[in-house]
Amino acid sequence: MSTALSTLAEYARSNPRSQAAYERALGLFPSGLTHDTRRQDPFPPCVTHAEGAYKWDLDGHRLVDYVTGHGALVAGHSHPDVVEAVRRQAGRGMHLGASSELEAAWAERIVRLVPSAERVRFTSSGTEATLLALRVARGFTGRDRVVKLAGHFHGWHDDASPGVALPVDPAAPVGSPPNPDLTVADPFAPGALEAELARGDVACVILEPTGAAWGAVPLPPARVASIAEAARAHGTLVVFDEVVTGFRWSPGGAQAVIGVIPDLTTLAKVVAGGMPGGALTGRADVMDALAFREGHGKVEHPGTHNAHPLSAVAGSATLDLLADGSGLARADGVAAELRAALNAAFEARSTPGFAYGQSSTFCLIFGERTDDPVALKGGVRPPLASALQCAMLLEGVHLFHGCGLLSIAHGPAEAEFTANAFRQALERLQDEGLIP
Ligand code: PMP
Predict the structure, then answer these.
(1) Which of 4, 121, 250, 394 is 20 to 30 Å from 201 at the Cα level?
(2) Residue 268: CB within 6 Å of ligand 1?
(3) What span, in angstroms and rounded, lies between the C-alpha atoms of 251 and 110?
(4) What is the mean pLDDT of the chain?
(5) Does any ligand 1 atom lie closer than 6 A to the CB of residue 245?
(6) From its phi and psi, is residue 307 left (phi > 0), alpha (psi between -120 and 50) or beta?
(7) Could you tell me if 123 and 158 lie in one domain?
């Protein structure tokens, strides 16, 4: 054990203004936070501005950003095309309170790019998109039951709970009533999911097509295909939650990569180019559960900010940047190099651990290599989680709970900087006796 300051103390010493901002926030927000996943000991960084692959905190540190707007900013922070589109529209009306050509232009891009997209409805978030998906599936099938997969996250409405975002407290959440129409099935337990579907009363099965937490717990494409097949055999709709993977795994999302086409797809994050927004898209006949038809009940879907003009233009500009796939392919390549460099760092310091991930993402796990879903979903555990986060921030890198989502603005230079930062962080954590 060295006599140097602990990682957390060193972080506190070099971030006095973020600490003061946190103390102010404690008097305003429960736990001083506006998003549960921003929790960090001793306090989270307070960020002032961002550009490209970088952001800057209140104490003046430049950080390579791997949160990238919780995955929304695959085009990087404040891409000039997106900024210009928003700037122009802001002067032409923030909310038109009417139909507009902006929403049609935005939807046409989605229909062009996403294989399952025939009709679209816009929402204000991913949570709203999955809420609408379940409602449409229930309205279309006339069935009440919904099956979700263990560990898969679909936002925070009661029908998506228990959500188990990253990282979780051991205590069970309170405030959501028991939901007899929601079943959580383990996709790896032989026959368990199939048995639920065989009851013939399931409206839809909703899942992240890459596996839980954007592939942190990988679900093999063959398993996704077999789930879809079993669902269809029993009249159950398949909903892919592509809130993270949409327009990131490929211009057509994960479904275009794995070749399984769902009935419905939920989108958010990238689709709105960094503005709040989401969408439900899918088969025209299923989406028509939302249509006004003489003599038929319909699925209700109001929402003040549906198809918000600023989200429409930011989303359209972003999708145009991604549509040919070349930027995404480059980001995937940089992420692959980064994963290899992070693994080399583990090896160089003889620290048990590994980096892995799909597409333009990575995750770190400390300990022996494993494919145990619980270990993978758990990620980097406390107290190491905060120490790693602080150690990387001290080196100029902002991780997202031991993981990262790259953008097309991240290049080899940022990957190399990050790998160096990780080597330094490992040394610090070893010196402190937090890792072997
Ligand atoms: N689905 C998935 C797969 C997500 O990762 C998230 C958010 N991280 C959501 C839904 C909810 O989206 P939002 O935060 O926009 O409500």
Answers:
(1) 121
(2) yes
(3) 9
(4) 95
(5) no
(6) left
(7) yes
* 436 lies in some domain: no
Q: Is 241 in the pocket of ligand 1 (CB under 6 A)?
A: yes
Q: Is residue 1 part of a domain?
A: no
Give me the amino acid identity at 196: E
Beta-carbon contacts of residue 104 (< 8 Å; ≥ 6 apart): none
Distance from the CA of 17 to the center of ligand 1, in angstroms?
A: 30
Assess whether the C-beta atom of 153 lies below 6 angstroms from ligand 1: yes
- Answer whether residue 104 is part of any domain: yes
Instruction: Measure 424 CA to ligand 1 centroid, in angstroms.
Output: 32
Cβ of residue 244 lying under 6 Å from some atom of ligand 1: yes
Residues 86 and 199 in one domain: yes
CA of 243 to the centre of ligand 1 (A): 6
Q: Is the CB of 130 under 6 A from ligand 1?
A: yes
Nearest to 53 by CA among 407, 318, 392, 422: 407
Our answer on whether the CB atom of 208 is closer than 6 Å to any ligand 1 atom is yes
Indicate which atom in ligand 1 lies nearest the CA of residue 160: 10
DSSP state for residue 77 in the 8-state scheme: B
**Ligand 1 atom index nearest CA of 155:** 11
* pLDDT per position as a tens digit, 59-98: 999 999 999 999 999 999 999 999 999 999 999 999 999 9
On whether both 144 and 206 belong to a single domain, the answer is: yes
Query: Of 232, 235, 288, which is closest to residue 260 (Cα–Cα)?
Result: 232
Of 322, 338, 355, the residue at which a domain comes to its end is: 322
For 314, the 3-state DSSP assignment is helix
Give residue 29's domain range.
7-77+325-431
> For 181-214, how does the pLDDT look when each residue is reduced to its tens digit (9 = 90+)?
999 999 999 999 999 999 999 999 999 999 999 9
Cα(315)–Cα(429) distance, integer angstroms: 40
Q: Do 178 and 243 fall into the same domain?
A: yes
Which of 34, 67, 127 to mutate for ligand 1's pocket (most ligand atoms within 8 Å of CB)? 127
Read off the pLDDT of residues 301-350 as tens digits, 9 standing for 90 and up.
999 999 999 999 999 999 999 999 999 999 999 999 999 999 999 999 99
pLDDT score recorded for residue 175: 84
Joined together, the tokens standing for residue 336 give: 């692959």
| Predicted confidence (pLDDT) per residue in 232-248, tens digit | 999 999 999 999 999 99
Total structural domains within the chain: 2
Same domain, 178 and 234: yes
Choosing from 277, 306, 322, the residue where a domain stops is: 322
